[in-house]
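FAQ

Q: What does a record look like?
A: Structure on top, sequence underneath. For example:
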Protein backbone atom coordinates (compact mmCIF):
# COMPACT_ATOMS: atom_id res chain seq x y z
CA UNK A 1 0.00 0.00 0.00
CA UNK A 2 1.41 3.34 -1.10
CA UNK A 3 -1.06 6.18 -0.54
CA UNK A 4 -0.71 9.53 -2.26
CA UNK A 5 -1.86 12.94 -1.04
CA UNK A 6 -3.08 15.41 -3.66
CA UNK A 7 -0.90 18.54 -3.29
CA UNK A 8 -2.51 21.48 -5.07
CA UNK A 9 -0.63 24.10 -3.08
CA UNK A 10 -3.31 24.38 -0.41
CA UNK A 11 -5.16 22.03 1.88
CA UNK A 12 -4.34 20.51 5.22
CA UNK A 13 -1.39 18.47 3.98
CA UNK A 14 0.62 18.10 7.17
CA UNK A 15 -2.26 16.91 9.36
CA UNK A 16 -3.29 14.35 6.75
CA UNK A 17 0.30 13.22 6.30
CA UNK A 18 0.67 12.82 10.06
CA UNK A 19 -2.52 10.77 10.23
CA UNK A 20 -1.31 8.43 7.48
CA UNK A 21 2.06 8.07 9.17
CA UNK A 22 0.34 7.28 12.48
CA UNK A 23 -1.35 4.41 10.64
CA UNK A 24 2.01 3.10 9.43
CA UNK A 25 2.12 4.55 5.91
CA UNK A 26 4.58 6.88 4.19
CA UNK A 27 2.49 8.90 1.73
CA UNK A 28 3.73 10.47 -1.49
CA UNK A 29 2.74 14.04 -2.38
CA UNK A 30 1.02 13.96 -5.78
CA UNK A 31 1.73 17.18 -7.68
CA UNK A 32 1.48 16.05 -11.32
CA UNK A 33 -0.19 13.24 -13.28
CA UNK A 34 3.01 11.18 -13.51
CA UNK A 35 3.04 10.85 -9.71
CA UNK A 36 -0.13 8.76 -9.86
CA UNK A 37 1.82 5.82 -11.26
CA UNK A 38 3.64 5.52 -7.92
CA UNK A 39 0.56 5.22 -5.67
CA UNK A 40 -2.42 2.89 -5.38
CA UNK A 41 -4.73 5.00 -3.21
CA UNK A 42 -5.39 8.75 -3.14
CA UNK A 43 -6.33 11.11 -0.33
CA UNK A 44 -7.47 14.62 -1.30
CA UNK A 45 -7.13 16.87 1.78
CA UNK A 46 -9.47 19.73 2.60
CA UNK A 47 -9.14 23.49 3.13
CA UNK A 48 -9.35 26.36 0.67
CA UNK A 49 -11.86 27.83 -1.76
CA UNK A 50 -13.58 25.80 -4.49
CA UNK A 51 -12.43 28.12 -7.31
CA UNK A 52 -8.81 28.32 -6.16
CA UNK A 53 -8.63 24.56 -5.75
CA UNK A 54 -10.01 23.81 -9.22
CA UNK A 55 -7.73 26.43 -10.79
CA UNK A 56 -4.71 24.80 -9.15
CA UNK A 57 -5.74 21.32 -10.30
CA UNK A 58 -6.04 22.60 -13.86
CA UNK A 59 -2.65 24.36 -13.75
CA UNK A 60 -1.05 21.12 -12.63
CA UNK A 61 -2.99 19.05 -15.20
CA UNK A 62 -4.42 17.05 -12.32
CA UNK A 63 -8.10 17.68 -13.02
CA UNK A 64 -8.47 15.20 -15.89
CA UNK A 65 -6.04 12.72 -14.35
CA UNK A 66 -7.94 12.79 -11.08
CA UNK A 67 -11.32 12.39 -12.79
CA UNK A 68 -9.96 9.41 -14.75
CA UNK A 69 -8.63 7.85 -11.53
CA UNK A 70 -12.02 8.14 -9.84
CA UNK A 71 -14.02 6.95 -12.85
CA UNK A 72 -11.75 3.88 -13.00
CA UNK A 73 -12.93 3.18 -9.42
CA UNK A 74 -9.45 3.38 -7.95
CA UNK A 75 -9.28 4.03 -4.17
CA UNK A 76 -10.03 7.67 -3.37
CA UNK A 77 -10.72 9.52 -0.12
CA UNK A 78 -11.83 13.17 -0.39
CA UNK A 79 -11.85 15.52 2.60
CA UNK A 80 -13.76 18.83 2.76
CA UNK A 81 -12.78 20.64 -0.47
CA UNK A 82 -11.65 17.23 -1.76
CA UNK A 83 -15.29 16.19 -1.35
CA UNK A 84 -16.80 19.37 -2.78
CA UNK A 85 -14.86 19.38 -6.07
CA UNK A 86 -16.41 16.02 -6.97
CA UNK A 87 -19.61 17.88 -7.86
CA UNK A 88 -20.56 20.09 -10.78
CA UNK A 89 -20.41 23.56 -9.26
CA UNK A 90 -20.37 25.60 -6.05
CA UNK A 91 -22.15 28.67 -4.76
CA UNK A 92 -18.74 29.76 -3.48
CA UNK A 93 -17.46 30.35 -7.03
CA UNK A 94 -20.42 30.04 -9.42
CA UNK A 95 -18.33 30.52 -12.57
CA UNK A 96 -16.07 27.58 -11.78
CA UNK A 97 -16.94 24.03 -12.81
CA UNK A 98 -15.97 21.13 -10.57
CA UNK A 99 -14.85 17.66 -11.62
CA UNK A 100 -18.46 16.68 -12.20
CA UNK A 101 -18.07 13.11 -10.96
CA UNK A 102 -21.46 13.37 -9.27
CA UNK A 103 -24.56 15.39 -10.10
CA UNK A 104 -25.35 18.23 -7.73
CA UNK A 105 -23.78 21.40 -6.46
CA UNK A 106 -22.13 22.76 -3.35
CA UNK A 107 -24.33 25.18 -1.39
CA UNK A 108 -23.78 27.63 1.46
CA UNK A 109 -25.46 27.56 4.81
CA UNK A 110 -28.18 30.23 4.80
CA UNK A 111 -27.52 33.65 6.30
CA UNK A 112 -30.02 34.08 9.09
CA UNK A 113 -30.09 35.27 12.70
CA UNK A 114 -28.78 32.73 15.16
CA UNK A 115 -27.07 30.46 12.64
CA UNK A 116 -23.31 30.62 13.06
CA UNK A 117 -21.37 30.20 9.85
CA UNK A 118 -18.94 28.58 9.45
CA UNK A 119 -20.24 25.43 11.09
CA UNK A 120 -17.37 24.56 13.38
CA UNK A 121 -16.92 21.83 15.97
CA UNK A 122 -17.86 18.25 16.78
CA UNK A 123 -21.11 16.86 15.38
CA UNK A 124 -22.84 13.53 15.34
CA UNK A 125 -23.21 11.83 11.97
CA UNK A 126 -25.90 9.28 11.14
CA UNK A 127 -24.54 6.47 8.97
CA UNK A 128 -26.70 5.09 6.18
CA UNK A 129 -25.04 1.67 6.40
CA UNK A 130 -22.89 1.25 9.54
CA UNK A 131 -22.01 -2.30 8.43
CA UNK A 132 -20.20 -1.13 5.30
CA UNK A 133 -16.45 -1.91 5.65
CA UNK A 134 -15.62 1.78 5.17
CA UNK A 135 -17.39 2.57 8.46
CA UNK A 136 -16.40 -0.49 10.50
CA UNK A 137 -16.01 -0.09 14.28
CA UNK A 138 -17.55 3.38 14.34
CA UNK A 139 -21.10 2.58 15.46
CA UNK A 140 -24.21 4.05 13.81
CA UNK A 141 -23.76 7.67 14.98
CA UNK A 142 -20.07 8.60 15.27
CA UNK A 143 -18.86 12.11 16.04
CA UNK A 144 -16.48 13.94 13.69
CA UNK A 145 -14.98 17.43 13.54
CA UNK A 146 -16.33 19.96 11.04
CA UNK A 147 -15.11 23.36 9.80
CA UNK A 148 -17.05 24.63 6.77
CA UNK A 149 -19.48 27.17 5.34
CA UNK A 150 -20.42 25.13 2.24
CA UNK A 151 -21.55 21.53 1.73
CA UNK A 152 -22.47 19.36 -1.27
CA UNK A 153 -26.11 18.62 -2.08
CA UNK A 154 -25.98 15.40 -4.15
CA UNK A 155 -28.85 14.78 -6.55
CA UNK A 156 -28.44 11.02 -6.09
CA UNK A 157 -29.43 10.11 -2.53
CA UNK A 158 -28.08 6.58 -2.98
CA UNK A 159 -24.48 7.77 -2.63
CA UNK A 160 -25.07 9.49 0.74
CA UNK A 161 -23.22 7.48 3.38
CA UNK A 162 -23.72 9.82 6.35
CA UNK A 163 -25.82 12.83 7.22
CA UNK A 164 -25.44 15.51 9.87
CA UNK A 165 -27.89 18.01 11.29
CA UNK A 166 -26.55 21.47 12.08
CA UNK A 167 -29.25 23.43 13.89
CA UNK A 168 -32.24 22.39 11.72
CA UNK A 169 -30.27 21.83 8.49
CA UNK A 170 -29.59 18.26 7.44
CA UNK A 171 -26.81 17.77 4.90
CA UNK A 172 -24.79 14.98 3.32
CA UNK A 173 -21.77 14.70 5.59
CA UNK A 174 -20.22 11.89 3.53
CA UNK A 175 -20.72 9.86 0.39
CA UNK A 176 -19.70 6.33 -0.60
CA UNK A 177 -19.54 5.00 -4.15
CA UNK A 178 -17.53 1.94 -5.09
CA UNK A 179 -13.98 2.51 -3.87
CA UNK A 180 -14.61 6.21 -3.23
CA UNK A 181 -15.24 7.72 0.18
CA UNK A 182 -15.57 11.47 0.67
CA UNK A 183 -16.52 13.53 3.70
CA UNK A 184 -17.25 17.12 4.63
CA UNK A 185 -15.76 16.63 8.08
CA UNK A 186 -12.05 16.36 8.83
CA UNK A 187 -11.07 12.83 9.88
CA UNK A 188 -7.47 13.96 10.42
CA UNK A 189 -8.81 16.29 13.17
CA UNK A 190 -11.33 13.79 14.55
CA UNK A 191 -9.03 11.83 16.88
CA UNK A 192 -9.76 8.09 17.21
CA UNK A 193 -12.87 8.10 15.01
CA UNK A 194 -11.00 9.85 12.23
CA UNK A 195 -8.03 7.49 12.35
CA UNK A 196 -10.41 4.53 12.36
CA UNK A 197 -12.14 5.82 9.24
CA UNK A 198 -8.89 6.47 7.37
CA UNK A 199 -7.56 3.12 8.56
CA UNK A 200 -10.67 1.36 7.25
CA UNK A 201 -10.15 3.01 3.86
CA UNK A 202 -6.53 1.88 3.60
CA UNK A 203 -7.16 -1.65 4.90
CA UNK A 204 -9.67 -2.31 2.14
CA UNK A 205 -6.94 -1.97 -0.49
CA UNK A 206 -3.85 -3.26 1.32
Amino acid sequence: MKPGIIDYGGGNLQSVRNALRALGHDPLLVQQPDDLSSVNALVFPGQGAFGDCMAALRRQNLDTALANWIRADKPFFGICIGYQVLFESSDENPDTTGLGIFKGKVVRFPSRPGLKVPHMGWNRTSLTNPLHPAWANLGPDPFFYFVHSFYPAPLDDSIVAASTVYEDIRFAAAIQHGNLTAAQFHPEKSQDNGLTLIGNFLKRFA
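Q: Is there anything notable about this one?
A: DSSP finds five helices and 13 strands in the chain.
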